[in-house]
Amino acid sequence: MSYSEAKAKYAALGIDTEKAMEALGKTPVSVHCWQGDDVSGFDSDKALSGGIQTTGNYPGKARTPDELKADIDKAFSLVPGKKKLNLHASYAVFNDGKFVDRNEIRPEHFAYWVNFAKERNIGIDFNPTFFSHPMVKDNLTLSSPDEEVRAFWVEHGKRCLEISEYFANETGYPCVMNIWIPDGYKDIPADRIGPRARFKKSLDEILSVPYDKTKVYVTLESKVFGIGLESYTVGSAEFCMNYVAQKGITPLMDNGHYHPTELVSDKISSMLLFNEKIALHITRGVRWDSDHVVLFDDETKEICKEIVRCGALDRVFIATDYFDASINRISAWVTGLRNVQKSLLFALLQPAEKMKKLQDESRFTELMVLSEDMKTMPFGEVWEEYLRREGIAADYFAEIKKYENEVLSLRS
Ligand code: RNT
Ligand code: ZN
Fold first, then answer.
1. CB 39 within 8 A of CB 406
2. Which residue among the candidates 71, 183, 254, 381 is catalytic per the annotation?
3. Which ligand 1 atom is nearest residue 127's CA?
4. Cα–Cα distance between 226 and 387 in angstroms, integer?
């Protein structure tokens, strides 16, 4: 079947494939830089900590800013649509190798990435890095009872706000600054409220720095547990939701951060009713928050369906967050990002109005039949047409293999 035949088939159901592709092309997806080097960063030799884990040892990991930059470019060249770069503070690039600790970082330490973004006319999102650092004591940062530790991380948060505003000013695109802390306990805590009260105080201190709210969107990411932090996390869903509501900042939901039968797709509509904007980390947890590569699976499609059906493409900051070191890292990036794009396109090609009407009129038999029929529509033809228009090869494996042979295999 050709694209024009597919287009006609969708048109018969009242769906405009041209409009769908146009809407997709305007929707930015923020690409997490940390898939390229297993969340290592450049500012510390400390192993990844914070209860998150990358598994696998596929050769060719990026070791320097230039290598990471080249790998991101390779991935970008194989992914359609509008992108942003999502950076962690640990990816600071120090001039003449002069190390600067996280409580002292400044915009200048991110000039490297600003140049990268400007050359590609994209925006940057940012994340303070509250892990993989010697000042994380007993798995605690902003909630630590040790004042020295807490103050260090509060200062880091403040530095990051300044850097986020710099990104927005330099690139001309707003910057989403996401706060996630790993703080928690392996076993049943004696005091649950103390750490949360300290986290609240620390966040208040960070946010006391004036910043331009039209340029920087501060988001807060909740989590239910981490490795070694199984019994309690300070930044639980209730903590984060309440904090965000009280301070007028933006909630961030990572779909690996809930109990395994809880679905972020079902949370989006509620959050949209009470927040001007919401943010997402799209990932794939397998039995736990394992951050596997995002697939074109039911939940990814359902998340995207919710964004589209709530009419919220411009109210949801969409970012990816996964890290697989067991396969080619560039391929991991491309596969996951394409699957987010595919899921968005799939959602844009559903007869949403008709389906809503069927629900409201309690015509559930018909609704089920239509929903199932939509699954075998010629979606692949529209996706391939979108790739053609974006000038991107449908088959990316050959390109990735070539890059592996010519570039990655030389890194040892
Ligand atoms: C951890 C959170 C967090 C990190 C990144 C690296 O569970 O999902 O978003 O994955 O900041
Ligand atoms: Zn996340």
1. no
2. 254
3. 11
4. 37
Contact 386, 345 (CB under 8 A): yes
Query: What sign results for the dihedral spanned by CA atoms 224, 229, 230, 232?
Result: negative
Ligand 1 centroid, distance to 102 Cα (angstroms): 18
Mean pLDDT of 48-56: 93
Q: Which two tokens stand for residue 239?
A: 């903590």
How far is it, in rounded angstroms, from Cα 320 to Cα 340? 8
User: How far is residue 332's CA from residue 267's CA, in Å, rounded to a whole number?
Assistant: 27
Q: What is the pLDDT of residues 103-118, one digit of tens each?
A: 999 999 999 999 999 9
Asked if 79 and 28 count as a contact pair (C-beta separation under 8 A), the reply is no
Asked if residues 185 and 138 have their Cβ atoms less than 8 Å apart, the reply is: no
In this prediction, residues 132-147 reach a mean pLDDT of 97
- Whether 44 shows a pLDDT value over 90: the answer reads no
From 34, 225, 321, the mutation candidate for ligand 1 (largest count of ligand atoms within 8 A of CB) is: 321
**133 flagged as catalytic:** no
Lining ligand 1 with CB less than 6 A are 34, 39, 52, 127, 180, 221, 223, 254, 281, 289, 321
What is the tens place of the pLDDT at every residue in 154-179?
999 999 999 999 999 999 999 999 99
Query: Dmax of the chain from CA atoms?
Result: 67
Looking at the DSSP bridge assignments, the partners of residue 219 are: 178, 250
Quick one: pLDDT band at residue 12, thresholds 50, 70, 90? very high
DSSP for 30-89, written as a single string? EEEGGGTTTT--SS--PPP-SS-------S----SHHHHHHHHHHHHHTS-S-EEEEEEG
Nearest ligand, measured from the Cα of 225: 1
Tokens of 407: 């570039």
